Amino acid sequence: MIDIHSHILPGIDDGAPDLNTSLAMAELAVADGIQVVIATPHVDGSGYLTMAMINTAVDQLNSVLQKRGLGLIVFPGAELQFHAAKQLVDQYCLASGSFFLLEFPHSHLPADALDLIYTFIQKGLTPIIAHPERNREISMEPGKLSSLVGAGAKVQITASSLTGELGTSAQICARFLLKNNLVHFMATDSHSPNFRKPILSKAVKKAKTYLSREGALALVRDNPLAILPEGYSLR
Ligand SMILES: [Fe+2]
What is this structure's pTM? Predict the structure, then answer.
């Protein structure tokens, strides 16, 4: 499996505070059957965190993982806040490709969201909307996501939303989106070994009750593979 949304890099944002926490997250991920993680620290447009810094942190973590014989590969990425995306999108794509992770404000859907999605698509970049089931406006009216998906955006739900660990509202919305074919990726958005754990298998099992087995696996395997460099395959 491939986890496309994780705050595993040590000491960069509100995710893993140190290397030991990153390694504990890596161990849990590997035990769950996750082979690849895309590290997606928060980028808010303040200029504090450059892609060069993220690349360096990823290289350092991969080196430690390799030395310890942990079978996990980390690719660089970011979780780009909506207000910063227009200016910065070219710099913060996932795995140096053409997909990027877009975070809306938690309270509402910005009025210019659809226009911006069209702009990104025209530039050849594909926005992946991060955890819309946790957005208050979308959770009240999930159908609002349809026009964004129709414009070319992809959707990532959080594994622990589907399992109910993030509350009933997020779970109901995640289930609705899945049943209506509005989900393309399922990821952990893990911040530590304890909070939004780096575990996907439990949610995949749940997804299989709404989708076919292949449909559920596509969310954590086939669709994420398209984000990674061409020709990359899982062991
Ligand atoms: Fe996140």
Answer: 0.97
